[in-house]
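dude i think i finally got it to work??
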Amino acid sequence: MDKTLTIALQTYNRPKYLSESITSILNQSFEDYELIILDNGSEPDTVSVVKSFHDCRIRYIRNNINDLNFLNKAFEFVNNKFLMIFHDDDVMNPYLIENLIDTIEKDDTINTVSCSINLIDENSKSIKKTRPRIFKNKNWKKTEYIQEYLVLVKKYI
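look at this
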């Protein structure tokens, strides 16, 4: 185990968003992580974005075709204490990882941590909506989170 966290960033043909997403990860206050970019068969623009970043924490893995099963590969590349699944159209607050790691390490009964997201428009401006609408600092029992989260997500689909 070399690092505390593996961040699996999944991408497919969204180079504009990918650059902003990678930048937000590299600008984290918490730095003990590796970033694995899982490219699910994107066009060459995506490779160019990834190559524009020069950071030893980045590892790039490309699938030759767009395949839904490729997204499960994140679990095969993890050899660190924690795994975070992230997407190419997501941007992190600079203290997100530090806060999540701090939360999970303070209580050994916690095995999963999650957070809500603030929605933005195509220009990265807040549209003042948060999803999912969950209670702040709520402790969930076993499958409670999944059940409630899926019910909330279903409302917005």
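The beta strands are 5-11, 33-40, 58-63, 82-87, 117-120, 126-131.
im so relieved honestly
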